[in-house]
Structure formats: structure tokens, C-alpha cells
Amino acid sequence: MHPNTTTLPVTDYPTTSPYTNSTGNPFAVAAVDFINNLLNKIPLPRWAIYAIFVVQPDVADVDYGSAKRQRGKLLYSLDYNAAQSELTVGIKQANNLKAMDLGGTSDPYVKVYIGPDKSKTFETKVFKSTLSPVFNEQFTFQIAKSSLPKSTAVMKVFDFNRFSKHEIIGEIRVQLCNVDWNHVIEEWQDLAEPAKFEEENLGEICFSLRYVPTAAKLTVGILEAKNLKSMDAGGTSDPYVKVQLALDKRKWRKKKTSVKKKTLNPYYNESFTFDVSFEQIQRVNLVISVWDHDALTRNDAMGKIFLGCDAAGNQLRHWADMLSNPRRPVAQWHSLLTAEQVNSTLVLKRKLPLQNKLPFLSGPPT
User: Fold this and answer.
1) pLDDT tens, 82-115?
2) 73-190 and 203-346 share one CATH topology?
3) Strand partners, 91
4) CB count, 10 Å around CB of 125?
5) What's the topology of domain 73-190?
6) What CA–CA distance (Å, rounded) separates 81 from 78?
């Protein structure tokens, strides 16, 4: 039964046909006879047939095109500090989000960036099993006042999934040329259907993390990647994965997988173990990058992601899950970002010097 229908008593429905001829028009008589004969062939009481017609929803009530109502709302804020050329985007809360999971709920988080350059991308933390999360997070972007008129603040709400692609619930795009910067903007807005001109998809990578504090061992398992970007003329690539550790934002240790020939969906199942003390794991960042191998020219970067103490969003969540589950591998899929996006957030210094290679750091000769 339609949810907006009120059940009526049987006696409220007519028991005879409403189609009667009051004009004597032979065409009308024929039409009435045809309708009555048709209704008589339906194996239902006449009142039930009329009830079916009464409770049918109007076409406007059907959910076609009702994306805004279904996707929910987002409360956000915008504030620009002209003296410091800083734009602060606040993600306050969401309400009545679309349920993406079988249990009638979602695990929402918000991704924020400024277009068209997308030099930095931020993510809120993930909220489990809710359609009305309260985020209360702020993200700051360096942007010149002259660039505001041609820039767009983009806020995308996703449903988190550990073992599959994160589904987008909806998005908001605010043209900054239309904003009055004389005061802080704070408003609710309906989430819209994702724009068709979606940013370039660089693919996804799945890897596991395992940390054993007692042994001071960090193991990174590169499992597989999918939907990678084609880098070669034949529409394919020769991808391999580079695994790099940075300590105190200095390049520290690195290893790499084998090269998989002519594929955009490589399967590796290769693991690498690093000696990392419990004190160091709190200052470490893990950089995962995918490269296209070229025998004659320079290898091309295909995508990048980083996790660790300076990460945010899903990357920080994966890192925290690893630390809270010692000795157990924790696997998760991640969407690859451009090297520019990662490098703007994680600025690495030169590699840590090795004491035994620097004479002035060695002890006196014995």
C-alpha cells in the first residue's frame, strides 16, 4: 500500500460502475459498455478495483529525479582571511543522508577540495552506521584573493567501505565568485547528484598493514590494484609499487614490488617488513606510489597515497586500525591521488643521514 494512503471502509467505495450515460450519445454508450465489460473480466470485487485507482500515487510523487530529497543535506561554512590568503572550509554536520548499506544506514565521511587545481584534498573522519553525522571539522586552503572568482569549493559525501570502492552519496559545489566575504558563510544545502565532469580516476590499490610492537616490525602487504591509468600507447601499463617510509618527514627506507606487464589490474601479493620501534611508529609516514615501468625512458608516476601520523580521513583510519589491532593484518582499498596532491600535504625532506657513512658522526678511533 502506498505510504500516503488512508484505508477507507468498504462501504465508501461505489458498488456500481460510475461510468453511466447521461447524454444519450451512442459513442458514449459504447465506451461505457466497453469499460464495464473490461471491469467485469477482472477477478476482483468492483470496490477493490476502484480502490486500486484511488491509491495510485500521482506521477509527481514518484521518486524519479528526487535526488536532492534522497541524498540529504550538509551544513558547511566558508570564511576567507584576506590578510593571510586563507580560505577555511568548515564541515559541520549532515542530515537525512541516503542509506547506502543493506542495514538501512551508511558510514559517511566528507572529502573537501578547491577546484579547479585541487592542489590539496582533505577528508573528515568516518562515522559508522549513521545518516546524520556531526563532523565539526575545519580545513584551511592557501588561495590568493585574485583566484577566488575562478575557484569552486567542492564537498563530496561518501559512504565508506573497507573492501570495495567508496560510493558517493552526493556533493555540493560552491562557486566562490558568488560568495560575500564580508562575513562568515554558514548554511544548509541539499546534496546534489555528482557532477558528470568527475575528476580523473587514477585507480585504486589494496594493501594490508601489520605492526608487531614487541618485535618492532611493520609489514606492508601490497595485494592488488585495479582500474589504473593507461600510460602506454597500447592502452595498458607496466605497473609496479614503491613502498617508502618517512621518519620525521624525512625519507628513510624504501622497497618496491615486481613489475606486472601490460595490465591495468595487477595482482602482486608481495609483502615487505621494516624494523620500526614503537617510539618511531608514532613519527612514521608510509608512502605508497604506483609507477609505470619504462625500459628506455623515465618511469612515469601513476598515483600515490600516504598513511601515518600526518594523514587524515580514510588513510588515518587505516593506520589507526593497524595500531589498535597489533599482530593482525588489516587490509583496505584506497583511491589513488596525484603526486601533486600528496606532496602538497606531506612535504618530505632529504633522506636521513646514516651515521656510519659520516666520519664526523663516528666515534674517535680506537
Assistant:
1) 999 999 999 999 999 999 888 889 999 999 999 8
2) yes
3) 76, 137
4) 16
5) Immunoglobulin-like (2.60.40)
6) 10
